[in-house]
Amino acid sequence: MGDQISRGEELVKKAEKKLNGWGFFGSKYYDAAYLLHKAVDCFELTKSWDRVGAVYVKLASCHLKLDHKHEAARAYDITADYYKMTKNLKEAISCLEKATHLFLDIKRLNATRGYYQILHTTFLGTRECKFPMGLAAAIDKRDVAEFTSCLKEYDSIIKLDEWRTLVLLKVKEALKVKALESKGQLGRLFYIVPCSLILFCMKKIRLF
């Protein structure tokens, strides 16, 4: 196991050396990404989830340099899963938000929601589906009271764990701030909130 960790760390160093060097038409980012993927394999074998998460953050950066926003968003999404496994909820949420920003930029959220609704047709009529959709509806209306009511109703039936509670409280606080602003000042940033719910609640159905 120790050999795999050492191997992974060596691959990360090589990737960083590539990134700090000169490359032709983005070649250094492709080369670094290749090395980082190999490092991920090493760290996964040892179940070093914190190291895996850190490497995926570097991978996301490489994809962004290459303007591969979808791949970067996926890397941040995967990173969130690994940080969640290590109970690093703050970083997990941060990565999920970055993924959401990128999905918004490439306009993939509606497609993502539609895909999962089709894929999980048996999920649509369940409480687990109505809950995130109810939250998203409350956010669209800037209705903090409705959001809170929906959250309390679900929590009274199925207790939310620390991870989900932290995410939803963060959304609620953002909603409170936006509810106080005029419609003209809301801007595009506001819509990151409902889209985050779609990613969190639909794309990660297994959490519910």
TrEMBL record:
Source species, domain of life: Eukaryota
Gene3D superfamilies listed in its UniProt record: Tetratricopeptide repeat domain
Keywords: Protein transport, Transport
Gene Ontology biological process terms in this record: intracellular protein transport; SNARE complex disassembly
Record SUPFAM superfamilies: TPR-like
Gene Ontology MF terms: soluble NSF attachment protein activity; syntaxin binding
Keyword Lyase annotated: no
KW Transport (keyword) present: yes
GO cellular component: SNARE complex
Family membership noted in the UniProt record: Belongs to the SNAP family.
Name this protein carries in UniProt: Alpha-soluble NSF attachment protein
